[in-house]
UniProtKB/TrEMBL annotation:
InterPro entries in the cross-refs: 4Fe4S_Fe-S-bd, 4Fe4S_Fe_S_CS, ET_IronSulfur_Cluster-Binding
Iron-sulfur in keyword set: yes
Superkingdom: Bacteria
SUPFAM superfamilies in the cross-refs: 4Fe-4S ferredoxins
Keywords: 4Fe-4S, Iron, Iron-sulfur, Metal-binding
Name of the protein: 4Fe-4S ferredoxin-type domain-containing protein
UniProt-listed CDD domains: PsrB
Coiled coil: none
């Protein structure tokens, strides 16, 4: 199995901060991500002709939260969270999945990936995508071939999803630096990690929806996406939800 790099104090942790208050669910992030990465680090990205699906590093889910006048729509973009302790890396039998020491980005080496799908089973966030054409696992790379490209203007050295977001709901930076713009944004808005109880320490953060102007959603009742997903799963029955999850994973 693959070992993780030894943590270093003050280490760079590149990641995304996603604002659930301003995300409009337009899927521009998913489309631009697909376009860039189809010829990038993990390209090409396949489309499956037998069904309207394929390899997507970004997927956007939509939930209804609350009831009556207090209800609202929450759009939830999902991609790799580049965890500090990623189970997808430690479970890999060939070392194809690895976490970079210099910036914390989690990547897959397609040359050594054997397509066993163990990493997709280990990832609780569903961030792994199996490319049936290439027979290997692929995932968000934070556009590693773009953010370090010195041929691009500095302002363009951001992931494709961040560059294209029309609502400025996606932010990119070093979450290991408490003084960075993204770290300050997380502190100001009470940003949180997804399912922290699992212990994988995802680097990406989500900003909760702000209270509505009419006061129907007070600050003490800020909508937590974790609560939304948990309640949805509970209402549908744990067994049924688990079977649907397993079916999605195995069908990749």
């Amino acid at each position: 199995m693959t070992s993780l790099p030894t943590p270093v104090p003050g280490q760079k942790k590149l990641g995304l901060v996603i604002d659930l208050d301003t995300c409009v669910g337009c899927h521009a992030c998913a489309v631009n991500c697909k376009e860039w990465n189809a010829s990038g680090h993990s390209g090409p990205l396949s489309d499956f002709q037998s069904k309207s699906d394929g390899v997507w590093f970004n997927r956007v889910h939509t939930y209804e939260a609350g009831q009556g006048e207090a209800s609202r729509t929450v759009n939830f973009p999902r991609s790799c969270l580049h965890c500090e302790e990623p189970a997808c890396v430690t479970v890999c039998p060939t070392g194809a999945s690895y976490k970079r020491t210099e910036d914390g980005i989690v990547l897959v080496n397609a040359d050594t990936c054997i397509g066993c799908k163990l990493c997709s089973w280990a990832c609780p966030y569903g961030a792994r995508e199996f490319d049936e054409d290439d027979g290997v696992m692929k995932k968000c790379t934070l556009c590693v071939d773009k953010i370090y490209n010195e041929n691009l203007p500095e302002e363009d050295r951001v992931p494709a999803c961040v560059a294209t977001c029309p609502a400025s709901a996606r932010h990119f930076g070093d979450l290991g630096d408490p003084d960075s713009d993204v770290s300050r944004l997380v502190a100001e808005r009470g940003g949180y990690e997804l399912m922290p109880e699992l212990g994988y320490k995802p680097v990406n953060r989500y900003l909760p929806p702000r209270p509505r102007k009419n006061g129907s959603c007070g600050s003490q009742n800020d909508i937590s996406l974790v609560d939304i997903v948990a309640k949805k799963t509970a209402s549908e029955g744990k067994g049924a939800a688990l079977l649907r999850w397993a079916d999605r994973v195995l069908s990749r």
